[in-house]
Specification:
By secondary structure, this protein is mainly alpha-helical. The protein has a domain of 67 residues. 35% of the residues lie in helices and 0% in strands. The chain is built from 2 helices and no strands. The termini are far apart. InterPro entries: GH, Glyco_hydro_2_cat.
């Protein structure tokens, strides 16, 4: 049984997706001006030394330690397909003849 909280509990899977949505709103505005790419800092969750700041590992990844997709992975898949489909007509400029061997 899955329980969503509003607002999401900090550092939960729902919180991660909510933060990404906020970042995406800003990136979408800036993409019109000068942003040409995005990246995800952590592919998957990873284990860290136990401590008060990291209980049971680091959970920043879009996949679990067992490589199961988290909500963020599905959010990103949808976003990147949308961006790719919007950009399908874009073609890189042809290389200049001076640059060719």
């Amino acid at each position: 049984f899955w329980c969503l909280q509003d607002p999401p509990l900090m550092f939960s899977e729902e919180y991660q997706a909510a933060v990404l949505k906020e970042y995406h709103a800003v990136l979408d505005q800036k993409r019109e001006e000068y942003v040409i790419g995005e990246l995800i800092w952590n592919f998957a969750d990873f284990m860290t030394e136990q401590g008060v700041t990291r209980v049971m590992g680091n959970k920043k990844g879009i996949f679990t330690r067992q490589r199961q997709p988290k909500a963020a992975a599905f959010l990103l898949k949808e976003r990147y397909w949308k961006i790719a489909n919007e950009s399908i007509s874009w073609m890189p400029p042809a290389p200049c003849s001076a640059c060719l061997p």
